[in-house]
Amino acid sequence: MRAVLAAVLFVFAATTAGAQIVWVGAEAGTTWEYEADTAPDKTFHYADTVSPSGFVGLKIGNDVALRLRYLDVPHDVVSGGEAWPGKVRAWTIGVDYFFPGIVGKAHYSAGVGSYRLDLEAAQPPEGIEDTTFGWYLAVGEWFRVGRRLQATMELTMDRSSLEGTPVTLGVWAGLAFGF
């Protein structure tokens, strides 16, 4: 409920500040974790599940947008010599800078946010589930599909100080609707 309220306040504040366009998007992607504790023999550990992501973006300049993003990616931790499967749920806020791309509008983005580790276990080990500060970097391209619809493709890197200090690389594709 707090997340929905934060998103509504975010949209309201930007709209009253003179934002011209609001983008709402949903993406799905796959991720790799750099030097995961649960896969010490691999540099990049592939998460073989589809991860969801969503965002609300507000145009605040000709080629600049402010974006509130939700992210849900797998992350396993090691505790007591045992792997515990879980997910990192993130709420981030960042700035997107757009410029002419190969086919559409390319962008790079950076931001900060809250990253929360939730383990799937009914009784997880004490003190592992936590919420911490993190940051992300992204590059991508948006392609016009219709007057108000754009296809999105992004490559992201998220870093937080959760258990295992995960660095997650993600490849995302989705749609953004502008109004």
Structural class: mainly beta
Number of strands: 10
Mean pLDDT: 88
Biggest sheet, spatial arrangement of strands: 1-2-3-6-7-8-9-10
Distance between the termini: 24 Å
Number of helices: 1
Percent of residues in β-strands: over 45%
Radius of gyration: 17 Å
Describe this protein's structure:
With 179 residues, the protein is mainly beta. The protein is 8% helix and 64% strand. It contains one helix and ten strands. The chain has an eight-stranded antiparallel barrel with strand order 1-2-3-6-7-8-9-10. Strands 4-5 form a two-stranded antiparallel sheet. The longest helix has 15 residues, at 2-16.
The gist of it:
The protein is mainly beta and 179 residues long. The protein has one helix at 2-16, and strands spanning 22-34, 44-59, 64-74, 77-79, 82-84, 86-100, 105-119, 131-144, 149-160, 167-178.
Write the layout of secondary structure elements.
Layout: H1 2-16, E1 22-34, E2 44-59, E3 64-74, E4 77-79, E5 82-84, E6 86-100, E7 105-119, E8 131-144, E9 149-160, E10 167-178
Antiparallel strand pairs: 1-2, 1-10, 2-3, 3-6, 4-5, 6-7, 7-8, 8-9, 9-10
Summarize this structure as a short list of keywords or feature phrases.
179 residues; mainly beta; 8-stranded antiparallel barrel; 10 strands; 8% helix
